[in-house]
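Explain the record.
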Amino acid sequence: MEKWRLLEIEYPSRAGLNLAIDEALLRQTAKNKGSPIVRFWRNRNAVVVGYSQCVEAEVNLELCRIRGIQIVRRITGGGTVYQDLGNLNYSIVIGSNHPLVRRLDIQDSYNLFLSGVVKCLKKFGVNPLIDPPNSLLVQGRKISGNAQARRRGMILHHGTILVNSDLNLLSEVLKLQKKPSRQIGVPSKRRPVTNLSDEVAGKIRIQAVKESLRRSFEEVFSVKLVHSALTSDEKEASRILYDEKYSREEWNFWR
């Protein structure tokens, strides 16, 4: 059975570093032709903007300033999301020529990765449906959003699972703003959202979702996930990307 790396590495108070790690893993795995990676991580009170989106159009900037909410831009597409410690993020880094994905188009790759999340959530008694191209819905409400970047012969796929997130704050932070003078990219599609805990009427621990997701990925992908740590090269690449990119307003706000 093929072994993949499993990383449970997160910097909740440094959302930009979390995103820098994802890009560093993509770059270093491409460079070293390393094995695929699954990573679990969280942000504490952060807005993560899609690659080509306009921050001013997507985010309540004044509320973010008052509440100390981080704003960062990712390299993947998709819409803007609010994240807190009740929101579990997962990332998958895999070569585009890997046998699991090499014959799949983009939508089929989404369906494959999302099928692992579907299996995870079903273990908690809910029945999510894939809403193409990249969302999961439970009774018409979004519980997971996902995005991809394809570079250097690699796929970076990452997504979210709303577990115990503050949905009231989410709705305020992502409240539709006045259209700015300069619109970048396609605006986010707003739709009702839900937490896993709300669907099962009980508090669910993030660790329980991690464990379920780990087992589900192993079952769907027919692999073994082995706990790992960042290599020295990955740490250094993450630091450089954070210092030169993800910590800078020029990147996060396209200034």
Summary: The chain is about 35% helix and 25% strand. The two ends are 47 Å apart (CA to CA). The mean pLDDT is 95. The first helix runs from residue 15 to 32.
